[in-house]
Amino acid sequence: MISNWLRRHPLLGYFALAFAISWGGILLILASRQFDLSPMQPLEGGLILLAMLLGPSVSGLLCSALVDGTAGMREISRRALHWRVAGSWYAVALLTMPATISATSSLLPSSSAARRTPRPSGCVWNTCVSPSELQFSAQT
Fold it and tell me: Can you say how many angstroms the Cα of residue 59 is from the centroid of all Cα atoms in its chain?
């Protein structure tokens, strides 16, 4: 029954399923927090991001499986694994960012050297205040 409806309305089915998966995951995570919207822990934010990313991907795979069956899944895997350019270009695409980060970090001073730099005792971040500069107002 769902498969027949999905064959007649594939685009609507895809978006409905993507919406349901993404927002369903988000609502599950928020329900575990009793819908408290105060700042979240990094793990919770990461799980919400994962739910948002999985919705469209899983929806596409499910719709292809329901509409086209194993032939559709075979076609998806064939297209995903088909190399359209030479392997060296894949290496360029995958290694450019790590090489750039490595080169940049080798040019910057190390963080351990920055921690050993002596600072006056009143420094917070990059702002230094000496005790003589502090003014206190007395309440009358």
Answer: 19
